[in-house]
Amino acid sequence: MSESTTPVSPVVLEAWFDLQCPDCFKALDDVRALREKYGERLDVQLRHFPLPKHKHAYAAAQAAEEAFAQGKGWEYAETLLARTEELGDRGEPVLLDVARELGLDAEEFDTALIDGRHLLTVDADEAEGKAVKVTGTPTYVIGGERLDGGQSQDGLRARIEEIADGLLT
pLDDT tens, 52-110? Predict the structure, then answer.
């Protein structure tokens, strides 16, 4: 099989997460493994689906968008997901603590949460999630197929790999 000179567009994996969701934290192991296996051939995109039961998830989604604007979106999301319990207990100060720990501009985070500059992005994700029938988190969409990890994540990574392999050949 010869190497093609045309670069292959990466396969997009949409990861619908609630950043206060412990199941989404567990799902990071799969996300990391998929990134390691596929590298640049798989574009893992964080999509926001804050659940009503998590009162700080909506602000967390906005904060993550500010982190993307400052160049450390996934790093911020992963760090925050490791602290879902603390976020539930302490609320928005945790969002700024994580920003500071990662060397981001915490004042800009605070301003972004106040001025709502990322509200439209989060609202658009939420609306699109509802349109593609996301009901819980984590949920993945790849190759037009929705995979719900809200109940169980068993076998999800294998199914994502199966779809990605099919799309990459």
Answer: 999 999 999 999 999 999 999 999 999 999 999 999 999 999 999 999 999 999 999 99
Angle at 50 between CA 46 and CA 54, to 5 degrees: 135
Length of the chain: 169
CB 141 within 8 A of CB 128: no
d(CA 32, CA 72): 16
H/E stretch holding 36? helix 22-38
The tokens for 95 are 């969002």
Q: Alpha carbon 17 to chain centroid distance?
A: 5
C-alpha to C-alpha distance for 41 and 90, rounded to whole angstroms: 38
The angle subtended at Cα 99 by Cα 98 and Cα 101, nearest 5°, is 60
